[in-house]
Amino acid sequence: MIPQAFDYSSPRSLHEALVLLENGEHKVLAGGMSLVPMMKLRLATPGRVVDLSRVPDLNRIAESGGVVRIGAMATHHEIETSPVVRGQCPLLSEAASHIGDVQVRNMGTIGGSIAHADPAADYPAALVALEARVRLVSAHSDRTLDAADFFLDAFTTALAPGEIVLELEIPAEDSSEGYRYEKVAHPASGFAVVGVAVRIKKNGAAISMARIGVTGMGPRAFRDRAAEKLLEEGADIARATAAVGAGQEANADLYASADYRRHLAAVHAARALTVALSRAS
Amino acid sequence: MKIAGAHTVPAAREWAFALLQDPVVLARCMPGCQALERTGDGEYHMKMKMVLASMSGLFDGRVKVADSCPPESFRLTVEGAGKIGFMKGEGVLTLAAVDGGTGVAFAGDVHVGGTLAAVGQRLIDTTSRMLIKRFFEKLGAEIAAGEAARAAPYPGDLY
Amino acid sequence: MATDRYLAADAADLVEVDYEPLAAVADPEKALAAGAPAVHPQWPDNIAFTFHQEGGDTEGAFRDAEVVVRQRITSQRLIPTAMETRGVVAEWRAGERSLTLYSSTQIPHLLRTLLAGILGMPENHLRVITPEVGGGFGSKLNVYAEEALAAFVAMRINHPVKWIESRRENFQATIHGRGHVDYFELAAKRDGTMLGLKLKLIQDLGAYHQLLTPAIPTLSVLMMPGLYNFPNISADIVGVFTNCVPTDAYRGAGRPEATHGIERMVDILAAELQMDPAAIRLKNFVPANAFPYATATGLSYDSGNYAAPLKQALDAVEYPKLREEQKRARAAGRLMGIGISTYGEICAIGPSPATPAGGWESATVKIEPTGKVTVMTGASPHGQGEETTFAQIAADELGVDIDDVLVVHGDTAVVQYGIGTFGSRGTAIGGTALYYALQDLKAKVKKFGAMLLDTQKVTLAGGTCTDEVSGKSVSFAEIAGAAYRALKLPPDTEPGLVATRFWEPPNFTFPFGAHIVVSEVDRDTGAIEIRRYIAVDDCGKIINPLIVAGQVHGGVAQGLGQALWEQAVYDDSGQLLTGELTDYAVPKAHLMPWIESSHTETPSPVNPLGVKGVGEAGTIGCSPAVVNSVVDALAPLGVRHIDMPLTPEKIWNAIQQGGRA
Questions:
Q1: Nearest Cβ partner of B118 from C13, C19, C579?
Q2: Which residues of chain C have pLDDT under 50?
Q3: Of A6, A191, A260, which to mutate for an interface test with C (greatest number of C Cβ within 10 Å)?
Q4: Domain boundaries, chain A
């Protein structure tokens, strides 16, 4: 449990950080909740670690024009407790509250988490359901992608060498919306065996908008558009969620088989929708 | 761990079969393959760099093609060992003509040991399938780019 | 030798091992199959030993039986996971030719004796110090290679050497626990009277024998009758080598396996006969007037009132009302379960013939010249709190303030020889040795007190010694000072106030109790909710209720760990797949139910304190209560047995299959 020797840089500006990262071999330290354990096991042996914690303003959380911007270095705890996030996109705040434990939430950041793209991470379900966008910058580029296009596969994102996540842009949830993040936590790791994030808008008794994001079940988080459509066409929750995850690859490990994960995704989608519906006005 | 799946290769069956046994093609398409050197009949020495999230490791190993029944099936063994662990994948690949090319079905076992297996248990299944998927995606891209056609020494000296 | 941990890790990284993998077998039943790879070529059938035990007429009992139930029951392999991994510091003083070894161990004196042999050095040049130990649960009841290696290297390089085990090493180099596959058969009459019990016990030994490896399953066999009046017993143990970490003592050590087996079998019999699980237990308990009770396995149960804790637990849950609630829940389609476990354990291990290294314990009490009291115990507690319990015993007996008592342990240069901490023995044996040493000293203190007061009869209380006739008194400290100053001595009395006792127990003690678990299973996901946990434990006389509660809580946590979450998983090649805490699920605070703990107190006649032991009780009583509860919840679906751990997917599969059946 001893890492290999490595060089450490602690840039004081974004520009300095991006110039350093032009060397594609360097690793970004953005909280270290995944990177540091990997280094201690020597599964990761970076030559240089670039710590973003001293880059100013990277943890800013602010809303303007109906868009909530969350800096990559905002911690899970900040996102869980931020009045802006709680008020404007409470689904993300609820998902953050399920991550790891208090110590992890105090150290881990949203940028670090999504760049790592663990298939069992909590955020991605909420981000795809929120139709969030991810802003990526490098020394030479600045681009913004839909979250759904950012997560490519297990531990695989659209980040190019030298690029970092700068911030997330999340369209504010309508205050009449209902939302819910339901999670089955692994009893050892606390990671999501399955996590389902949903948003609902009601029009009278009918559902006028539904968003369902699923994490943990497959190699990457996905939106179940078929189930969303069924709900928006008037199907009841049981019918709409019966096939959640159909056609998606499913993970398997010692704790839960692929079939069981798929089943959990459907069950918890229904439960999340039920709660979301009760919260919608 | 058992592993099975199917991918489509955008090439006719005989052609797909030849590509799948071509060391140049294998070297290009196997994720992280840095060198592939022929050591015997259907046997190759391989150097590979696995990069997955923040994890990375060098593997030294071999690739073996056996029980070749062109153009229908063959047995492929890929194994490697490095500081972070060792792995061995063995399975039978079966080729059948499908719309748009050749369907390649595989079924076999993946065995992972060492640190990788002891601490990465929840990821082995997911990442094994992902690496296989990447291989076939790359193969498809190679074919599409016409690169494979120039590189493959069909009918070659493999069988 | 590396000069720091970083260098050591870098150096180890440079070693490239070229392994030639041999055929392996990680499952004890597969290891017994014909043609299985041999773990040790010299024993091609992988059988390390077999052991047969018989009492009564088992064949006759099965012939006469009106009903026989059979079940294969496993107690899965567990990883003890002490919070503190093992650690060793060895310091060689060449000038003195003496070695001081600090080790996180449960047995400092035995370690010293065995190390002397391993290192080939005089035992009296070796000092073992065991400072505060962060948990052991049996996993540090061993002598490990690293202890000898660190010592050897320190002597070779003439420099102190430190070795701390990483968590991964802890999982792969420190003993594991459990690892049973049990085939039970229970013969009974249709009225629920149990007649006979047969067991074939396949013990996964791992690859080698550690200190007590083969002894653990024999404890299971001894305790297989549980609390029941079983005249006829037959058991066969097959000890099997596998390519896994050796198994050895882990909290409960053989008794959780035995209890899980018999308590599951009793429930299976009750279900077969459609009897209430509480009623069938009450019908078959060894009656309260039958003690000492000779079991068919050759033990003598010391004392007991087995119905008492069960009745107390049933009252606590309002059992009849609870069954009514269950009926309503079932009618509403909910899966609610009530599980009972009534356990007995064999503790205070134990009389010397039953142990490989002496089953006694020692205590020295020294009243210092200032009147302060120092207790040196060989019991070497590692977190159970005997520093407090023993101080209470000493303070009560000598009539001094508890803050004037210091309990010292875990240093072979300070403490007289001792055995150590395991088998719920600390207070029952070490406490008793202390008690007798205190009686010796009390008598001597009174002699000095009487001399100073110039009288015959004195009492000792409240820090003073008082003449019963005149009411005059002298303080404890004055007596102590006089005993060391020795200007005048009572007749036939030596100066000083030190007494040492080595106490050999005449028998084990047999604590018992009843645990009830009320559970609810989520029909859609298989997730289990523990709604209530009632533990009524009888550990004999209770000296410190808070410490007993701590032991019960910790024990139940580890029992729940086995019942619900923990399992060491190997693949067929012998690779441990649960190699870190990310996959091996130990109980966590937020997963624990509220434990409603209470007690009955049936003193043990084995020792004058009347204590029995409580360190392992919670673990032993817990797992069958949980599994019985969940199986009861699933009973309407035709489920009869599920092996641990009860993971949600396993339960969900059982529900799916039950739904189809």
A1: C579
A2: 661
A3: A260
A4: 7-54, 61-170, 179-279
